């Protein structure tokens, strides 16, 4: 029996992808990559940013083939098959003719290309594709994929040019020169420029000071690179790749450092791959990686487990267990077999029960999805959860079993008509976020998930707090951006969640603030933009608060005698343009009396204060409060520097100078805080 992901990837059910090399995983994706060797396949992984876990997710969990990986393989194959063509010709062949639907997607998600648009649209059901043609609407999950590709594509194209010169663009050249600068430095008296076609053509990339005494110019055309030495109109030799041209143009000392053009290429490619995550920041500035919202809930990243290859899968019982649970480890198999022996249960009987159950689950899910095509993507996710093949890795490193059904456009009728199969009691994380028509979570779903610890229902239409079968187990509840107004019923449901550690009710029209006095274990609370005019009761009972974000509300005053424990007060954020004048005066008075700023949480300054010495922390208290608040954007920018420690150290030096130099302090306080590093 063959397992596939619906896009060409395949394996026999007896096969063990965990034991395959990365290259074998790629060759089993069903893509035409015969002309590429294993080294080029590895290069495609670097270019696209796909790691081994994602490859295993395709073969073990039936996930879609990463579109950027397939695209990179297609472009590298094209260059390999047509060595006589230049970059412009290769690009024309690659682009081909786009359909109206593909053109529309490219326009909506620039810089998406027609081949990438084709791959994405192929994932739509006929009904969803018809909606795209007629109404221009896409399922939320496909919108998310398209947005991610548009963010990742510029770096993929830049990296591509390091491996295949005929596919290089100006970002490839900027990346190349940045790598050279980091790898071996560049002599101060020399400036190197890469220009389009002519010595005075468009500047594509450069390193070295503009006022440098010596200027080297590489001229780039569709044929390659020429070192311009001033003797035109007699043209110099044209090199097919920039490494050869750079080596030819470099000063003798750098040539000795590099060794050869080939060695330069290898060092550059190694550095580019090793520091892949840092290049967006280096090439396109600090905004490239800054999240749109600060302090929002962030779950762990769903990953497929990477299980080492082991010969134990060759034995019949382990092999059958692996077919049931593709990510099962040797230790787990041995423990399960030992448990069966100790309890006098037959392995054959236990396996048959599980195999029959999986077969019935497939039948039931196929029947459920057949009635409504939009349900089909959810089937694979539910199967993965049943097969214990969907793992969420939390920020602590803890691995928990998850059922991830976000952004599938599921409706109340979809959940109500599906009785979850038995065998999901291990699920600790349920994510239904982004199903914006969903307003009910059926009781039989919650009864099937007694071990639920994390429930994410953001961006839906819920108007009530769900009531869980075992409410004391829940630690994480995300109800951001729903339609909940707070009342006695909501309060009663919340108070049953005695184990809750994280609560997000942001972007709900609560109007009345929840009472938190019965939830002392809450560590993170978010009630941003909830129409609140009074603070929640019970804030003083929170024993280990890290962040209490109550920003963007309309609070009018603090209650008489309002006092919080120091750590709780430092975790609180009340910042909002709609705060009344009376509460603003109270916040300033509270700071003067208690030394805690209720307007801005200490977590906003965390990058600067996390590793600060006691002396610097004391200095920080002497910075005027209004100026500290204004420094937050500068702290974020400094933390986003290529060298974070250098950026934050520069900021500390300015603050230390403010503390000891009255004239500089006056200058700094009279200038916008954002300009402090420029003073």
Question: What can you tell me about this protein's structure?
Answer:
It contains 29 helices and 17 strands. The protein has a ten-stranded mixed sheet with strand order 8-9-10-11-12-13-14-15-16-17. A five-stranded mixed sheet has the order 4-3-5-6-7. It is globular. The longest helix has 25 residues, at 347-371. Strand 3 and strand 4 (203-207) form a beta hairpin. Among the domains are: 2-166, no CATH class; 168-287, no CATH class; 602-679, no CATH class. It has 679 residues and is of the alpha/beta class.
- Number of E strands: 17
The assigned structural class equals: alpha/beta
Question: Roughly what is the average pLDDT, rounded to an integer?
Answer: 88
Quaternary organisation of the protein chains: single chain
The percent range for strand residues is 5-15%
Shape: globular
Terminal CA distance: 70 Å
Helix content: 40-55%
With strands numbered from the N-terminus, the spatial order across the biggest sheet is 8-9-10-11-12-13-14-15-16-17
Q: Tell me about the biggest sheet?
A: 10 strands, mixed
What does the radius of gyration come to?
A: 29 Å
Instruction: State the helix count.
Output: 29
Q: Low-confidence segments, ≥5 residues, pLDDT <50? A: 286-296, 298-315
């Amino acid at each position: 029996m063959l397992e596939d992901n619906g896009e060409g990837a395949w394996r026999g059910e007896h096969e063990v992808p965990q034991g395959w090399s990365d290259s074998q995983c790629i060759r089993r994706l069903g893509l035409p990559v015969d002309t590429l060797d294993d080294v080029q396949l590895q290069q495609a992984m670097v270019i696209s940013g796909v790691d081994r876990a994602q490859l295993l997710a395709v073969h073990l969990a039936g996930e879609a083939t990463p579109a950027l990986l397939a695209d990179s393989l297609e472009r590298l194959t094209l260059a390999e098959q047509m060595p006589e063509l230049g970059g412009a010709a290769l690009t024309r062949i690659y682009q081909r003719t786009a359909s109206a639907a593909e053109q529309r997607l490219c326009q909506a998600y620039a810089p998406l290309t027609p081949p990438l648009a084709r791959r994405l649209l192929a994932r739509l059901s006929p009904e969803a594709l018809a909606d795209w043609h007629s109404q221009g609407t896409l399922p939320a999950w496909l919108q998310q994929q398209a947005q991610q590709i548009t963010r990742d594509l510029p770096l993929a194209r830049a990296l591509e040019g390091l491996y295949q010169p005929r596919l290089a663009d100006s970002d490839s050249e900027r990346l190349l020169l940045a790598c050279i600068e980091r790898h071996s430095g560049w002599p101060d008296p020399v400036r190197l420029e890469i220009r389009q076609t002519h010595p005075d053509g468009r500047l594509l990339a450069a390193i070295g000071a503009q006022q440098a005494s010596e200027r080297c110019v590489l001229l780039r055309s569709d044929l390659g690179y020429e070192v311009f030495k001033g003797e035109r109109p007699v043209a110099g030799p044209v090199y097919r790749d920039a490494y050869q041209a750079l080596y030819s143009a470099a000063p003798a000392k750098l040539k000795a450092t590099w060794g050869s053009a080939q060695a330069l290429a290898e060092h550059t490619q190694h550095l580019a791959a090793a520091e892949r995550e840092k290049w967006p920041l280096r090439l396109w500035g600090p905004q490239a990686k800054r999240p749109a919202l600060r302090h929002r809930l962030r779950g762990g990243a769903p990953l497929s487990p990477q299980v080492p290859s082991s010969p134990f899968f060759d034995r019949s019982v382990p092999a059958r267990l692996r077919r049931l649970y593709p990510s099962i480890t040797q230790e787990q198999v041995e423990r399960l077999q030992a448990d069966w022996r100790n309890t006098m249960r037959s392995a054959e009987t236990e396996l048959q029960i599980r195999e029959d159950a999986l077969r019935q689950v497939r039948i039931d899910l196929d029947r459920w999805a057949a009635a409504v095509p939009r349900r089909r993507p959810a089937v694979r996710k539910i199967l993965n959860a049943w097969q214990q093949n969907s793992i969420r890795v939390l920020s602590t490193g803890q691995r928990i079993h998850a059922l991830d059904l976000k952004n599938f456009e599921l409706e109340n009728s979809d959940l109500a008509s599906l009785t979850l199969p038995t065998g999901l009691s291990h699920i600790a994380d349920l994510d239904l976020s982004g199903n914006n028509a969903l307003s009910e979570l059926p009781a039989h779903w919650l009864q099937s998930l007694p071990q639920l610890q994390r429930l994410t229902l953001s961006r839906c239409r819920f108007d009530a707090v769900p009531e869980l079968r075992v409410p004391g187990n829940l630690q994480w509840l995300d109800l951001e951006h729903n339609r909940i107004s707070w009342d006695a019923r909501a309060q009663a449901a919340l108070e049953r969640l005695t184990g809750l550690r994280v609560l997000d009710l942001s972007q709900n029209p609560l109007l009345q603030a929840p009472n938190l006095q019965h939830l002392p274990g809450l560590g993170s609370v978010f009630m941003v933009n909830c129409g609140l005019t009074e603070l929640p009761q019970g804030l003083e009972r929170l024993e280990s608060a890290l962040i209490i974000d109550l920003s963007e509300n309309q609070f009018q005053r603090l209650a008489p005698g309002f006092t919080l424990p120091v750590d709780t007060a430092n975790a609180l954020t009340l910042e909002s343009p709609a705060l009344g004048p009376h509460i603003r005066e109270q916040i300033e008075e509270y700071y003067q009396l208690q030394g805690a700023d209720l307007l801005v949480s200490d977590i906003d300054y965390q990058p600067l204060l996390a590793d600060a010495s006691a002396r610097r922390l004391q200095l920080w208290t002497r910075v005027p409060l209004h100026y500290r608040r204004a420094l937050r954007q500068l702290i974020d920018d400094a933390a986003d520097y290529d060298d974070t420690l250098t950026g934050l150290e520069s900021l500390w030096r300015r603050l230390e100078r403010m503390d000891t130099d009255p004239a500089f302090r006056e200058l700094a306080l009279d200038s916008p805080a954002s300009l402090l590093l420029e003073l």
